[in-house]
Amino acid sequence: MTTGIHHVTGITANVQANVDFYAGFLGLRLVKRTGGYEDAEQLHLFYGDAAGSPGSLVSFLVWENGGRGRVGHGQVAEIGFAVPTASIGDWITRAMDARVQVEGPKREFGETVLRLKDPDNLTIKLVGSDRPAVAPLHDPIAPTRLHSVAVLSEKPIETAEFLTRFGYQDGPAEGAVQRMISDNDVIDVRDAAGFVPSVPGAGILDHVAFRAPDADVLRQMRLNLKEIDGITNVHDRKYFLSLYVREPAGTLIEYATDAPGVTVDEPLVQLGQTLFVPERDADRAHDLKVMLPQFALPGEEKFPVRDLPFIHRFHRPEDPDGSTIILLHGTGGDESDLMPLAHRINPRSTLLGVRGRSTEEGINRWFRRFDAVTYDQGDIRAEAKAFVAFIDGAVSGYGLDVDRLSFLGYSNGANLLGAVMQLHFGVVRQAVLLRSVQALEEPEEGDATDTRVLMLNGADDPFGQMAPALEQALRANGARLESRTLAAGHELTSEDVEIAQGWLRNTPAFASD
């Protein structure tokens, strides 16, 4: 019966660095890019051998600029790849040349081992083992298959016993590590009693998946484990059927079928080239493709990320027209939220989404507030000043054309834009403010005659009564402002897109189109 590891899944906070390491440095093939099945707004990448064979796969959920997790018991702690035994010296040289942190070589269980750190500080183990690849990669020293994972457990005996359900048997032990052996690979169960528990987040391995020969065996396993709290039903992940269960010490385990495999929606020669989204999200596929982070494969042109005061992300269209729209999300949003809306306004604009730095009970905002309509004035001014520094850095660092620059903000993001236009004259010269209010208690006077503003308010917006004060202040400083009230509340509608699109087309930033 087929046994062993199907794949291992981790979480990365930097998609480009992740691709550079796994597809570039390690030489694995990117075999699949898809929106996540639990959250389609989360990019999911799969790397493996030349055919994406089960037993070679490592995948990553992309939490771009996400919070860090913590290594601890109840989790997979490291991934081991088998590499040709004679290549260990070459891997040391490659790591030194690439400035990848490397430890070793050392001997473990009779094998030569190197440990590396990936860009998220995950431990990657290269094990000298002449196990053949199912579908060899072009690089002669590239990993051939998954060799092992290490599991940190505060109940190592129970964990090891649980793994026998998936075809593993007791192997040798070294120190605090009990090795479990399958037909194709090993699991090292490390006694982590007294260690801290793990915390999910970037830089953490989320789970290990074991191979199920077919759907019947998978469903029988579901019946065998039915008494275990938290076991899931069988899920259709398109590339395999699977279920999830936690072993006694808490590590998340998936049981996944080999079939139908990664070639079910892409031919072998084109694996990893197309971004797919789950079928249930097909009606928003276009929006998701705009929201999900972009990256370059080895050999493709890369766009360096500048170190600026705010977390940010670009969406670069295939046929850019030279214009850029800078996006400021509403409360609880992030840098990708407004990208679909802005893309509908102008599909050829480069989009630069920015994330607010203030947080309130874990949600993103642009400045602090004391209650729903009382704002921290000092924080508004400080964040407005920081945002101006961000714009200056983005213009110089990314070569943005200031004459073709527009801003679009929603709710709290629009409020910050309004404050910037009243505190730092001439920085924001063209802006669309969606459901904005006057956040400043003492707006400043200045020359805003070169500023064009479109304000779109909701007739039923509970905060709408605070919008006229912002209109008056901007007009008093000479801004050319158009204000429209829509049959809407605080939420956005298709009419917002239509009006903003028509207005922007008649502004200097788009006049040359």
TrEMBL record:
Query: What Pfam families does the record point to?
Result: Glyoxalase
The source's superkingdom equals Bacteria
The protein's required cofactor(s) are namely:
Fe(2+)
| Keywords annotated in UniProt | Aromatic hydrocarbons catabolism, Dioxygenase, Iron, Metal-binding, Oxidoreductase
Residues annotated as domain VOC? 4-129
Q: Which family does it belong to?
A: Belongs to the extradiol ring-cleavage dioxygenase family.
Q: What is this protein called?
A: VOC domain-containing protein
Q: Which organism is it from?
A: Sulfitobacter indolifex HEL-45
